[in-house]
Design a protein that fits this description.
The complex is a heterodimer of chains A (242) and B (218). Chain A contains 6 helices and no strands. Chain A is mainly alpha-helical and 242 residues long. The two termini of chain B are 23 Å apart. Chain B has one domain. In chain B, helix 3 runs antiparallel to helix 9, helix 7 packs across helix 8 and helix 7 packs parallel to helix 10. Helices cover 83% and strands 0% of the residues of chain B. With 218 residues, chain B is mainly α. The chains are: A mainly alpha (242), B mainly alpha (218). The interface between A and B is medium-sized, with 26 and 28 residues.
């Protein structure tokens, strides 16, 4: 039993089909539960008032927005090294999901920033790096759309993903040099002194795990769609040849 | 390798407008900016380094799709790929030729335009230094973008969408050098970081560009 078995589309379809209802249900329960818990059953922050509740959407989507890119990096590497088509399709499937999470993170950040910092947008390193990440998602998806041959498209987008990762990381640290920001440091860390208070942390963790499962479910759905589309195209081509 | 470089330079200079076009574009962008900002000298002086850097970047971008597109259309790219020259070297030479025909004229023209924008005199040296160090990175990264999109018809817009996010760190440090230089602050640290990015781009981008070319030529 090894993970490479899932390089076989048939095996992947069978397993992901069986897993999908459970993953979707878990995502729904955790996201809805976490948000309800966070919105209605936690006290208001003594400085931020009820606007603190944006955290339950902002932090999980921001985490998933950047994690999705790293998932694409890993799947791109697997495609480049071992040529497993499912891997390339998973990278393709994850891009729009990651982009939307990044966008939600940016928008909720702006909604939170307006009452707290008095501005919708600030050229802060974290914010700007996220905006740049959003642009990388756009370019990556545009390249997938532009190239007709699916294998060439997978190759080129994978190379772009690798190069983009390097430059995204450089940009992140270059931006720190460029401008010290308004954004606070990490809200969740292993150091209990820096951590948010437990009342906020438990629902927040629920939301983060919930959004992780939501991401997983969406990527599985989209990968399955991509595999089916690929099959359909092969069938149509076979019909034409006959 | 030398022959290829000379050929590219000759083509760029003789084949209708590729050479001067970037320069003219740079001039127009820099002249248009004050119209958008307003005639107050103080504001223009303050934003001059940024204008010059963004102008140089856009002028670079303009000529990127010519790097491989013409060779791709007439089939000479395939010939070059089958020659004993490795594709990595080909990409490197192409980037060098692009820099010599686009980046170097921009470096030379920047001080003239800086006078138009009232850049303080001590900033001139830093501006030239930042452009001289930074534009090779623009050419190298752009060559990679051009290699990615060479098979795409009318890929110019896609090319800019792919390349511009990759330009962020270069632009950031380049404009920072010019800005600090103009304000009389110490600009050596960002210049060193800019040089680091340039060297990284020069060392790594030909390999990425060659990988992309191989896929497109398959």
């Amino acid at each position: 039993m090894s993970i490479w078995e899932y390089a076989n589309p048939r095996k992947f379809m069978a397993t992901s089909g069986a897993l999908l209802p459970w993953v979707s249900a878990l995502a729904a329960i955790l996201v809805v539960g976490g948000l309800v818990w966070g919105f209605f059953f936690t006290p208001d922050d003594f400085r931020m008032g009820s606007s603190v509740k944006v955290i339950y959407i902002h932090v999980p989507t921001a985490i998933m927005g950047s994690s999705a890119w790293f998932m694409m990096l890993v799947t791109s590497l697997i495609w480049l090294i071992r040529r497993h088509h499912v891997s390339a399709l998973a990278a393709k499937a994850a891009a729009p999901v990651g982009m939307v999470f990044t966008l939600i993170g940016l928008i909720t950040g702006a909604i939170w920033g307006q009452p707290m910092w008095g501005t919708w947008w600030e050229w802060d390193p974290r914010l700007t790096a996220f905006l740049v990440l959003f642009l990388f998602y756009l370019g990556y998806m545009a390249l997938w759309e532009a190239i007709e041959n699916p294998d060439a498209a997978a190759d080129l987008t994978s190379v772009l993903c690798l190069v983009g990762t390097v430059f995204a990381v450089i940009s992140r640290y270059a931006l720190v040099f460029w401008n010290q920001g308004l954004h606070q440091g990490a809200s969740l860390s292993l150091d209990p002194e820096q951590n948010v208070a437990d009342v906020f942390a438990y629902p927040l963790w629920t939301c983060i795990i919930g959004f992780l499962f939501l991401f997983l479910a969406l990527v599985l759905y989209r990968t399955r769609t991509e595999i089916r589309a690929r099959r359909l195209r092969a069938l149509i081509q076979r019909e034409r040849m006959a | 390798m030398k022959g290829l470089l000379l050929r590219d330079l000759r083509l760029a200079i003789r084949a209708g407008g590729g050479f001067g076009l970037g320069l003219a574009f740079f001039l127009i962008v820099t002249v248009l900016m004050p119209f958008g900002i307003g005639p107050e000298t103080g504001i223009i002086t303050a934003v001059a380094p940024g204008i010059l850097w963004v102008g140089a970047l856009l002028a670079c971008l303009l000529s990127l799709d010519r790097i491989f597109a013409l060779d791709w259309e007439d089939g000479s790219l395939e010939l070059l790929a089958t020659s004993p020259l490795p594709l990595e070297a080909l990409a490197g030479v192409k980037a060098l030729a692009h820099w010599l025909t686009t980046g170097l004229p921009l470096v030379a023209a920047a001080p003239v335009l800086a006078v138009l924008l009232n850049l303080p005199v001590p900033g001139f040296g830093w501006l030239i230094a930042s452009l001289a160090v930074g534009t090779p990175a623009l050419s190298a990264i752009g060559t990679f973008g051009a290699a990615l999109t060479v098979g795409v018809k009318r890929g110019g817009l896609l090319l800019s969408l792919l390349v511009l996010p990759l330009y962020v760190p270069t632009l950031l440090f380049g404009a920072e050098v010019a800005r600090r230089g103009a304000q009389g602050l110490d600009a050596l640290t960002p210049l060193a970081l800019l040089a680091g990015i340039s060297l990284l781009a020069l060392a790594a981008m030909p390999f990425a560009a060659a990988a992309a070319l191989r896929v497109n030529l398959r």
